[in-house]
Write a structure and sequence with these properties.
The complex is a heterodimer of chains A (389) and B (248).
Chain A: H1 19-46, H2 54-59, H3 77-90, H4 92-112, H5 115-126, E1 132-135, E2 151-155, E3 158-169, E4 176-183, E5 186-193, E6 199-203, E7 215-225, H6 238-272, E8 274-275, E9 278-279, H7 284-312, H8 318-342, H9 354-366, H10 371-383
Parallel strand pairs in A: 1-4
Antiparallel strand pairs in A: 2-3, 3-7, 4-5, 6-7, 8-9
Chain B: E1 2-6, E2 9-11, E3 33-35, H1 37-53, E4 56-63, H2 68-77, E5 81-86, H3 93-107, E6 111-115, H4 126-134, E7 138-148, E8 151-158, E9 161-168, E10 171-175, H5 187-193, E11 198-202, H6 234-243
Parallel strand pairs in B: 1-4, 1-6, 4-5, 5-11, 6-10, 7-10
Antiparallel strand pairs in B: 2-3, 7-8, 8-9
The chains are: A alpha+beta (389), B alpha/beta (248).
């Protein structure tokens, strides 16, 4: 099988990248080709996360790559996006790990933490020695995080935390949980270290998707936290939503990677498999699907590159990210479904990566703002009418 | 130790190469370019030597301005600085060796480490020519390089097995596949590389004879391989190998 990680660059978008951006992409691509792809199907089958590659990812500078200082690489947002693209070309679970570590956990501290918290946690997280998770979603509050029931109440200098978070990526393997909770003044964030009395985790099993990624429930029963565990600059729901915007930005790029792997696989397969008189790729119905894939991936690339430049220039809005996340993940999902179809029976076995990407993308379409929620965000933006309630 | 590592830009080994219809070269649109893999091994070895003994790793390439990108990748791996000898036309091995010999006269490295060959034209000549021009000892196809005092011991991969030779510095060593596994250019390394020195020198300012001695008349893709044939049993296979292929 030819190299499934190869580029798809119909519009010479490569020429719009700087040499550092290309070098970043090539480094990550090479890394996943050597260190991840040979093992990823086994991890997906066994429902395990490839934790052994975390130190290498850290050494290469992948965690918090677009943050400045505190031991982070300080790359621009194009380079950061390309990292996510290449990680998800391997597996959405791997990209999820990196998103949660970088854009949710590290960014939460970077944007809302005290100088002391940043100095204490960020360098360790960049080195991969401290793994983070991000507790916002609850069993009864997904698209509506403002309704959260987790509460923190003042207790002397510190706090007492109670509540349950669910669908938390990295939950049980995390050393540090960023937990969002309601206090008298509204919603704010706390840093809860693993092993704090009253804090426990339980993994969610039986997933048909994101099996190479750990998903957990976080349970807080009268967890006593010192004053230093509070994120002082996290005031209101906009604090966690700001983190989600960062993560969604990376997801929009990641979708390109997953879609590209599916396209490359479908192209190779249909060119080599003969049915009736000629290769499958010689039939109009198959060509129609391939051209649709090519077209959508190319559009996804253009959206992401423009979004990256807007982000670097400080001109992007969360609605731009909603647009990119909504479109790219949904199109990637359709591409994966088409690719699955084009591979016939081979499309359901793990000899090919397509079914794994398809199953993963079902999650990606839902998490970090469902497709429909992003539709409402964009609908509100263009009409001025709020259709959420 | 100061080590000079000449590198060449080549198409990514994973790229499908297409010969132009007129046979004048290969189609370069949409080709991904990388450091010649054997040269990458040379960079890695130079970095390991530097990490052990200190010194400087200087990269050099001879080509167009766009080749800067491969130099930057080498700098991102950890090399200290780079030189681009700018020349738009493709040069043959002899001209390349002459340029390198001239630059080495100015740079005075103790060791020149380079790939045994480039994977595009597989000439396998530059290292040998260079050593001859400099009057330096050479070891080609190195699979192990060790130092003691001013002496180098190199294990070479030769047809019959391994050959170990020892000689004094300065010297030219060309690298084989099993010498090491090159590191990845880390993202902080990529950021640092941006600030490292990359000097451009026009090739025609060196006063070196660049006139080609070698002319490529035409390029052609190898003929398509015929499909093989399936045999029914081991017995039949042995028989066919004996009677038809006549190899046993």
């Amino acid at each position: 099988m030819a190299d499934l990680l190869r580029d798809l660059d119909f519009f010479h978008i490569d020429e719009l990248l700087t040499s550092e951006e290309r070098a970043t992409r090539d480094t990550v691509r090479r890394f996943i080709s050597r260190e991840v792809l040979p093992h990823i199907e086994r991890h997906f089958a066994n429902e395990t996360f490839p934790k052994e590659i975390v130190p290498q990812m850290a050494e290469l500078g992948m965690f918090g790559a677009n943050l400045k200082g505190y031991g982070c690489a300080g790359m621009n947002n194009v380079a950061y996006g390309l990292i996510m693209q290449e990680l998800e070309a391997a597996d959405s679970g791997l990209r999820s790990f990196a998103s949660v570590q970088s854009s949710l956990s590290m960014y939460a501290i970077y944007a809302n933490g005290s100088e002391e918290q940043k100095k204490r946690y960020l360098p360790e997280m960049a080195k991969g020695r401290l793994i983070g998770c991000f507790g916002l979603t609850e069993p009864d509050h997904g698209s509506d995080p403002g309704g959260m029931e987790t509460r923190a109440r003042k207790d002397g200098d510190g706090w007492i935390l109670n509540g349950t978070k669910r669908w938390i990526t990295n939950g049980s393997i995390a050393d540090l949980a960023i937990v969002w909770a309601r206090v008298d003044e509204g919603i704010t964030g706390f840093l809860v270290e693993k092993g704090t009395p009253g804090f426990s985790t339980r993994d969610i099993h039986g997933k048909f998707s994101m099996r190479a990624s750990i998903t957990s429930e976080l349970i807080f029963e009268d967890v006593r936290l010192p004053a230093s565990a509070h994120l002082p600059n996290a005031r209101g729901l906009k604090a966690p939503l700001g983190c989600l915007t960062q993560a969604r930005y990376g997801i929009a790029w990641g979708a390109i990677g997953a879609a590209r792997t599916c396209y490359n696989c479908a192209l190779d397969y249909t060119k080599s498999r003969k049915q009736f008189s000629r290769p499958l790729a010689g039939y109009q119905l198959v060509q129609n699907k391939l051209v649709k894939m090519l077209t959508e991936i190319t559009k996804m690339q253009m959206i992401c590159l423009r979004l990256a430049h807007l982000k670097d220039e400080g001109k992007y809005r969360p609605e731009h990210v909603s647009f990119a996340k909504r479109n790219n993940v949904n199109e990637a999902l359709k591409i994966a479904r088409d690719a699955r179809d084009m591979l016939g029976a081979n499309g359901i076995v793990n000899e090919y990566p397509v079914i794994r990407h398809l199953l993963n993308l079902e999650t990606v379409n839902t998490y970090e703002g469902t497709f429909d929620v992003h539709t409402l965000i964009l609908g509100r933006d263009i009409t001025g009418e709020n259709a959420f309630e | 130790m100061k080590i000079l590592v000449p590198i060449k830009r080549v198409p990514d080994p994973a790229t499908t190469i297409r010969v132009l219809p007129d046979g004048s070269g290969i189609a370069t649109d949409n080709v991904k370019w990388v450091i010649n893999p054997f040269d990458e091994i040379a960079i890695e070895e130079a970095l390991r030597i530097k990490e052990k003994q200190g010194g400087e790793v200087v990269l050099i390439t001879i080509g167009q301005s766009t080749w800067q990108e491969q130099l930057r990748t080498g700098l991102a791996m950890g090399a200290d600085r780079a030189i681009l000898i700018k020349n738009d036309a493709a040069l043959d091995s002899l001209a390349l060796a002459r340029i390198l010999a001239k630059v080495i006269g100015d740079e005075n490295p103790e060791l020149v480490l380079l790939g045994k060959q480039a994977i595009d034209d597989d000439s396998n000549q530059v290292g040998q020519m260079l050593a001859e021009m400099l009057g330096w000892p050479q070891a080609t196809f190195a699979s192990k390089v060790e130092f003691a005092d001013k002496k180098v011991t190199v294990t070479r991969e030769v047809d019959g097995g391994l050959e170990t030779i020892a000689f004094n510095l300065p010297a030219v060593v060309t690298t084989d596949l099993r010498l090491n596994e090159p590191r990845y250019a880390s993202l902080p390394g990529i950021m640092k590389a941006r600030k490292k020195e990359l000097k451009e020198i026009p090739a025609d300012s060196l006063g070196v004879d660049l006139a080609p001695k070698l002319k490529i008349k035409t390029l052609a893709a190898p003929p398509k391989r015929q499909a093989g044939r399936k045999v029914g049993s081991v017995q039949e296979l042995v028989q066919v190998l004996h009677t038809e292929a006549k190899v046993i």
